[in-house]
């Protein structure tokens, strides 16, 4: 009887030791570290998502939530700072509310020199924030495409998100960003200064690290 109890006690001790070791290893895996990337890394990203406007495009208009595609190429200058370029496209369907008329769609291609900071990482999760300044190239197509011509505008973009590193070379990504796109449009030969296509973008995709 004493031998059986001793065996069960030894088995219990081994199980508890294994659980404690596993918990310690997991805690080590998820510990916070300074710097979110190695120096000299090239990062290529492709993301897609959607982008609601922050307000109405113009008075008495209705605007759909846009489709959004984003490409990114970055280079890490050190363990926490990257610099590079983004190219982003979005399309908003535009209509008049009263009477209901489908005007067409506004397309925006944003060329965005970008800097990004990655101060820390938590195991495979690497949070970051980025800022971009560039130009929004705006165009209008569809039913009223020949009557509406939005101006190109100064672009300012502020984003924040996180990478989940599946391997050292591949990560899943999610990002949210605000982008300023505030200008004017020529509508039927007249100037409309109330034309604001600033938006919030929600992106999901993947990144490669070389």
If classified by CATH, what would the architecture of the largest domain be?
Answer: Beta Barrel
Q: Estimate the mean pLDDT confidence.
A: 88
In total, how many beta strands? 14
User: What proportion of the residues is helical, as a percent range?
Assistant: 10-25%
Number of domains: 2
Topology:
Elements: H1 2-29, E1 32-34, E2 42-51, E3 61-63, E4 66-76, E5 81-96, E6 101-117, E7 120-122, E8 125-141, E9 148-150, E10 153-165, E11 170-180, E12 182-187, E13 190-196, E14 199-209
For the structure shown, list the relevant keywords.
210 residues; mainly beta; Porin; 8-stranded antiparallel barrel; 1 helix; 13% helix; disordered N terminus
Provide a descriptive summary of the structure in words.
This protein is mostly beta strands and 210 residues long. It folds into two domains: 1-30; 33-209, Porin. Helices cover 13% and strands 62% of the residues. It has one helix at residues 2-29, and strands at residues 32-34, 42-51, 61-63, 66-76, 81-96, 101-117, 120-122, 125-141, 148-150, 153-165, 170-180, 182-187, 190-196, 199-209. The strands form three sheets. Strands 2-4-5-6-8-10-11-14 form an eight-stranded antiparallel barrel. A three-stranded antiparallel sheet has the order 9-12-13, with no helix packed on it. A two-stranded antiparallel sheet has the order 1-7. The termini are far apart.
Q: What is this structure, in a nutshell?
A:
The protein has 210 residues and is mainly β.
């Amino acid at each position: 009887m004493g031998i059986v109890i001793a065996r069960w006690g030894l088995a219990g001790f081994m199980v508890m030791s294994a659980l404690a070791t596993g918990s310690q290893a997991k805690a080590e895996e998820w510990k916070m570290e300074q710097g979110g990337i190695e120096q000299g890394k090239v990062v290529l990203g492709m993301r897609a998502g959607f982008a609601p406007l922050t307000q109405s495009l113009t008075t008495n208009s209705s605007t759909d939530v846009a489709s959004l595609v984003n490409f990114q190429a970055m280079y890490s200058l050190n363990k926490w700072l990257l610099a590079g370029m983004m190219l982003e496209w979005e399309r908003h369907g535009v209509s008049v509310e009263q009477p209901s008329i489908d005007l067409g769609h506004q397309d925006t291609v944003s060329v965005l020199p970008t800097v990004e900071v990655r101060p820390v990482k938590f195991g495979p999760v690497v949070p970051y924030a980025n800022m971009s300044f560039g130009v929004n190239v705006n165009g209008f197509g569809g039913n009223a495409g020949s009557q509406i011509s939005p101006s190109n505008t100064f672009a300012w973009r502020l984003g924040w998100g996180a990478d989940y590193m599946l391997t050292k070379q591949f990560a899943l990504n999610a990002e949210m960003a605000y982008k300023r796109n505030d200008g004017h449009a020529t509508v039927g030969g007249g100037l409309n200064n109330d034309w604001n296509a600033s938006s919030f973008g929600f992106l999901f995709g993947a990144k490669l690290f070389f």
